[in-house]
Amino acid sequence: MKLKNTKFDSYKLNENILKDIAAMGFQNPTSIQAQCIPVALTGKDIIGLAQTGTGKTAAFALPIIQKVAQKMDMAALILAPTRELAEQISQMLCKLGKSSGARVALLVGGIPIKEDVKALGSWPNILVATPGRLIDHIYSRSVDLSKIEILTIDEADHMHEMGFLPQIQQILEVVPRERQTMMFTATMPKKIEQMIRRNMRSPQRIEIGRTMTATRAEQKLFRVSEQDKLLLLMDILSKKSQRVLIFARTKRKVDQLARRISALNNNVARLHGDYEQAQRKIAMEGFRSGKFNILVATDIAARGIDVANIEHVINYDFPSSAEDYIHRIGRTARAASSGLATSFVTHGDLSCLKHLEKLVSSKFKLIKVGDETPQARSSEHSRKYNKRGPKRKSRY
Length: 396
Known about the structure:
By secondary structure, the chain is α/β, with parallel strands linked by helices. It is 41% helix and 16% strand. The protein has helices spanning 15-23, 31-41, 56-68, 83-96, 113-120, 131-139, 156-161, 165-174, 190-199, 212-216, 229-237, 251-262, 277-289, 322-329, 350-360, 373-388; strands spanning 46-49, 76-79, 104-107, 126-129, 150-153, 180-185, 204-207, 218-223, 244-248, 268-271, 294-298, 312-315, 340-345, 366-368.
């Protein structure tokens, strides 16, 4: 019986996929899904320019499931820059391919090799991996990529930022030349363009969502000095009990902020590159479940965070690019929802702010924090904090 409660049936997806789409509560395709799915089903190469929160995972997952779920061999490979994003993609594939015979294996760093061997021994037809871990298996000849028909590279620009392009090029030399390639990226650095020209066949460019999340999220930008940022942050957090994601530039600053915040709020987790997989899992699962209502993270470590109902994103350190700003605030304005994004802007951030305004074709109002009310409240709150803060120890 054909399902009528979803518009996904117009893409000629099989009935098992439609059943799993309905079970997940998906009703209307997002813009990236509506444009990507029919093209991907034809086998054409795709360049998708899309931010987080636009639904791009399902945009490539659904065509992959349709085309390879019944195959015995490993026919699809998906590369992601971080463990968290790879896990998120794997989970989405398992849910959307539950009734279709999709068998998904996950290869990421921080997991014992014996777990990889077990995953590869389960005859997966879809493999999700981070580049470094997959290269390890290629070198040890423990993975066979000779039957790959579809290759998807997610967040290619962040692959570039993290130095993974040489590994990706090695992987591209191992997989069959006759394949479908889909690449998703928020920005298009020159090296990404070069990789596309060398390894894709007349790809169709699909661009969506570059400014959509910036439009959906309510945004507040504070012009503040570096030394006043902590006072302002404490003032904001003292008034909010909702789920908050805070971005800081360095690992050291993440640790410092988490310690300071935990003196007033014990429900704080932190996430950065020095954390082992078990620690990252505790932080993420705790934030997702509500055990921690505040997560402090570096931008790279936070790639792939898929947590519903993040009401507030705070850019403690303003991002170094306008595209990263849109990517970050997309954490709170996911799919059709909205949220609050607060950013601290110092003098050194003004050039990036101008680039952002040009990208989104909008002028942002800067709330000056100095002798004005936010600063005064922060100072008063700081005196209270200094009076009682040292008496309490961090639990995280």
